[in-house]
Amino acid sequence: MALDMEKLNEFVGKFVQDFGASLHAGTIVIGEELGLYKAMAEGPATSVQLAERTHTDERYLREWLSAQAASGYCEYDPATGTFSLNDIQAFTLADESSPAYLPGAFLVSVGALKSIPNLIRAFRTGEGYGWHQHDAWLFHGTEKFFRPGYAAHLVAEWIPALDGMEARLKAGARVADVGCGHGASTLLMAQAYPASSFVGYDYHEPSVDWANRTAQAAGLADRVKFEVAPAKSYPGKDYDFVAVFDCLHDMGDPVGASRHVLSTLKPDGAWMIVEPFANDTLQDNINPVGRVFYSASTMICTPASRAQEVGLCLGAQAGEARMRKVVTEGGFSRFRRAMETPFNLIYEARP
Predict the structure, then answer these.
(1) What secondary structure letter does DSSP report for 161?
(2) Where are the beta strands (DSSP E) in the chain?
(3) Strand residue runs (E) in 96-206
């Protein structure tokens, strides 16, 4: 077999990039957990100075800094031997209020990778692997990764795109956030709409405990609460607004969940469904964003769905057509794409 050497070298170059990225992910998590990026944002420093600043071992830190510089995650000045973050690096790596804060994504990645032995077994047997079975880094990373995007878009763009819902929330509404995780989306809405009351539901008890502590610390516990409940049987009736953020595709029975959401809404209520951006066909999702979501779906979303009853396994690249089918089979009569971002699709469903 005669190989095209130019194409071979091109593919090996891609491998070098991916291999380096896979190892570099671990260094980003180390930097996030130890506060190294935030310390670097304070100003240029040698490895010795940064070790003193962060109370870490200089030799380890020197190697870590070298990896960051080689990866383009910090700047190195050979004349002074100092490392620093430029404005973009500081904005994305050190500022947790930034809409483009990135370290959480690597917590998700490294947390999911810890489950590889279990996922290999799942591939062989067809069994599921539940969200709750993953390492806690996945839960913390998910909050850190999704919260900046929600903070940037949820109140400013997504809710205003829904028919009449912004005014309703300002006047005072009853809201359920289903599959709320650590409650970042719930708390962002509660802070923006002080006349409304909110309850977040999730089947994962440690996440619910975390969310309640966060609500208490934020001074919102008087009108925000979190409870352990699955999507198909959470309590309450006559909600004005139900939201589901980046998790309908993870559910084993999303049609059953849709049916239950409908039963808990007021006749004039609305359901907002936030999902990863996806086109309807595989060939249209073969791109860098699709690569991220298909990979995450292989390790997290599809096994989570398979671990539940029905196990529909929509996957993170379900697309609008499949979501429409799920929602309308659940009994909703109206479904539309309210808006989109490069990473999300925002749907509005009405009874």
Answers:
(1) G
(2) 75-77, 82-84, 174-178, 197-202, 224-228, 239-245, 265-276, 334-340, 344-350
(3) 174-178, 197-202
Q: 10 Å Cβ neighbour count for 302?
A: 24
- pLDDT (tens, 9 = 90+) of the chain, 351 residues, equals 788 899 999 999 999 999 999 999 999 999 999 999 999 999 999 999 999 999 999 999 999 999 999 999 999 999 999 999 999 999 999 999 999 999 999 999 999 999 999 999 999 999 999 999 999 999 999 999 999 999 999 999 999 999 999 999 999 999 999 999 999 999 999 999 999 999 999 999 999 999 999 999 999 999 999 999 999 999 999 999 999 999 999 999 999 999 999 999 999 999 999 999 999 999 999 999 999 999 999 999 999 999 999 999 999 999 999 999 999 999 999 999 999 999 999 999 999
Concatenated DSSP letters of 237-288: --EEEEEEES-GGG-S-HHHHHHHHHHHEEEEEEEEEEEE---SSGGGG-SH
Please, what is the end-to-end C-alpha distance for the chain in angstroms?
60
Classified as helix, coil or strand, 344 is strand
Q: Which DSSP state fits 84?
A: E
Sheet holding 344-350, edge to edge: 224-228, 197-202, 174-178, 239-245, 265-276, 344-350, 334-340
Strands (E) across 92-179 are located at 174-178
The residues, any chain, with a CB within 8 Å of residue 314's CB and separated by 6 or more, are 248, 249, 254, 301, 305, 322, 323, 326
Q: Is 164 left (phi over 0), alpha (psi -120 to 50) or beta?
A: left
Instruction: Residue 184: name the closest of 198, 164, 172, 169 by CA.
Output: 198
Give me the DSSP letters along 197-253: EEEEEES-HHHHHHHHHHHHHTT-TTTEEEEE--TTT-----EEEEEEES-GGG-S-
- Domains in the chain, ordered, with CATH? 15-94 (1.10.10.10), 102-350 (3.40.50.150)
Q: DSSP 3-state assignment of 86?
A: coil
Pair of tokens at residue 23: 């190892």
User: CB–CB of 342/289 below 8 Å?
Assistant: yes
User: Residue 289 has which token pair?
Assistant: 């964003």
